[in-house]
Amino acid sequence: TSEGHYKFISHENFEFELGGSINPLEIVYETYGELSPEHDNVILIHHALSPSHHVASHSEEDKPGWWENMVGPGKPIDSHKYFVICIGNIGSCYGSSSPLSIDPKTKKPYRANFPTLTMNDIVHSQKILLDCLKIKNFHAIIGNSVGAMLSLIWGILYPDTMKYLVLTSSSYKAYPANIANRVVQREVIQLDPEYQNGFYETNPTNGLKIARKLGHFTYRNPADLNQKFSNNHKIAPNLPCEVENYLEYNATKFATQFDANCYLYLLTAMDLFDVTRDYEKPLEVFKKIQAKTLVISVDSDILFTPQQQAELFQCLKDAGAHAHLIQHHSSYGHDTFLVETDVIGKYIVDFLSQ
Q1: Model confidence, pTM
Q2: Annotated catalytic residue: which of 224, 259, 301, 335?
Q3: In this predicted model, what pLDDT tens digit does every residue of 194-224 receive, in sequence order?
Q4: Nearest Cα to 4, choosing from 29, 41, 23?
Q5: Is residue 26 a contact partner of residue 5, using CB atoms and an 8 Å limit?
Q6: Cis peptide before 24 (omega within 30 of 0)
Q7: Which of 96, 331, 334, 335 is catalytic?
Q8: Is 301 a catalytic residue?
Q9: Burial category of 55 from C-beta neighbours within 10 Å (exposed 0-12, middle 13-18, buried 19 and up)
Q10: Is 330 a residue of the active site?
C-alpha cells in the first residue's frame, strides 16, 4: 500500500482465453502515493503498447516515467491525493509473464510457445493481482491507446468497481486498417533470418526496427512530420535525410529495449480485440458500463482515428451510458497524450471533479 516497485507471483495455473496456461503468473507493478484507510482513492492507469509500468519517477526510482508530467505530487494525477497503480501488461517484456519468461517444463524461455494472448487475458491477470492486494474499487481507471482498450474491458467486466473511466485515443474493436498495418509489421519481423520461427537466441532487431518504423509513422500525423522536417532534403541517394535519421533513431532505441516475440504477441492481442464480439446486439455490452466515461479524441490521430472515437462515444451514448466526448485539436497525432500533458491533464482533472 506504499510507494514503490513490486513483483507479484501466483502459483495457481493461469488459464488463457484461447487455450493454454502458465504457472507461475508473474506481474510487475508500481504504486504512487498512499492508499486511504477506506481504500477509496485508487486510480488504475493502463499503459500503451510500448511503455511499461514505470509511469513516473518515485521515491525508489528517480528515472522519469512515460507520463512523468502527469503523475506525482501536485501533478494532474496527484499522488498526494490518490493512490496510483500502474501494472505491467503480461505479454510485454518488462518483467510480467511473457514469451521471455522461463517455461518450468523446459527451463528455457517460452518464446513462441507462450499461449496466444488477448486483451481479456491481460485484464484477468490484473484482477488476480488487485484482488490479492484487496483493492476492490477505483476512483478512476485511465487508459491511453492500448491501455484504453484494457480500461474499457474493466468498465464492462467489473462495472461496479469504478466511478470514472477515461479512454484516450483508442477504440472498442480492431478496425481493418489497423489490422492491415499490423499484418505488415508482423511479416517484416518474421522474414528476418534471425527470427527463426520465434525460437531465436538473439533478438531479430533488423526486422523489429523496420516494423517499428512502420508503426512509428502512424504515431505522428503526416502534417507534423512535414513541418518538423520542412527543410529536409535528400542530398545524395546513399545519404540518409533528416526524417530517415529520425525513424532510424527511434526504431533502434525501441529494438534494443523490446523483444520481438513480445511485440508480435501484443500486436495479435490488438487484432483480436472487439468488446462486441460475443454479443448479438453490440449495444448490450456498452449497457454494462456504469462509470462516468470520458472519451478523448485527437483530430490528427491517424492510428485510432476521430471516426473510431466518435463510434465508441456513440455506442456509449446509445447504450445510455453517462459519457462525454472531448475532441482535442493537436498536430501531434496519436502521441498527443504523451506530448501535450498540460492540456490532457486539465481534461482529466476537470472530469474527475464532476
Answers
A1: 0.96
A2: 301
A3: 999 999 999 999 999 999 999 998 999 888 8
A4: 29
A5: no
A6: yes
A7: 334
A8: yes
A9: buried
A10: no
